Known about the structure:
Blueprint: E1 6-10, H1 14-25, E2 29-33, H2 37-40, E3 49-50, H3 54-58, E4 63-66, H4 71-80, E5 90-93, H5 99-111, E6 115-118, E7 121-122, H6 125-129, E8 133-138, H7 144-154, E9 155-162, H8 169-198, H9 202-209, H10 217-227, H11 238-254, H12 260-277
Parallel strand pairs: 1-2, 1-4, 2-3, 4-5, 5-6, 8-9
Antiparallel strand pairs: 7-8
Helix pairs in contact: 4-5, 8-10, 8-11, 8-12, 11-12
Amino acid sequence: MTDKLTVSVLGTGIMGAAMARNLARAGHAVRAWNRSPDKARPLAEDGVAIADTPAEAVRGADVVLTMLYDGPAALDVMRQAAEGLRPGIAWVQSTTAGVEAISDLAAFARERELVFFDAPVLGTRQPAEAGQLLVLAAGPVDARDTVTPVFDAVGARTVWTGEDGAEGSATRLKLVANSWVLSVTNAAGEALALAKALGVDPQGFFDAIDGGPLDMGYLRAKSGLILEGRLSPAQFAVSTAAKDARLIVEAGAGGGVRLDVAAASAERFERAAAQGHGDEDMAAAYFASFDEKA
């Protein structure tokens, strides 16, 4: 297998578009499709061929990469692509699909004789654009050479979690990591909202924790977006965070554990989206602390 591949990217939102660009910059032939064509067309300037249908995008590809909203969306698009798929093609499924959806996606892969890789990524817009994502991957050892050039183009590191993508080990790890990210995001927003309510200068809070174990770069980064009004373009959107939070709650319930913080996080993200912040950075969940859009 040559290191230069034909890669089909289905889904060109914040993450998918960045991944397609980095694949093209790495010298791969990239075809992209998106349900809203306007989100895919700018990729042509980076040498990406824009397809009108999923089937057109995947025809003749070595690797298909899906980065869509959720598991049902990924399955629907792959069904649309079915006539263009050939047996033996590698399917890199990077959508945060949730535990339950993985079995349906893997079943489709078996039906179509695709080599299935469960491969969600950790990171937001900036690391995605820089090709510095963390790839969490599970899939057969004997087919990894095919997808390694793809992972190298979009990520700084790949962590292999298992040999069978159908088991969803990579997705499970992604949900655990996301549970932490979403909880910290909401905790930062609530701390700033409380500071506002109590008339406390946020800088006083940062000075109090400076350099100690409670301080962290992520807190300061998300707080900066809120305090400086830099919530657009989103690094990771409120609406997507709400979806991921719900998947985390469902996964916990399926494992017999109650995730109260994750459930509250989902409600905050959904409330912020209802206030009109759905397309803004997930730090905009800050506004869910107030009755109206601030």
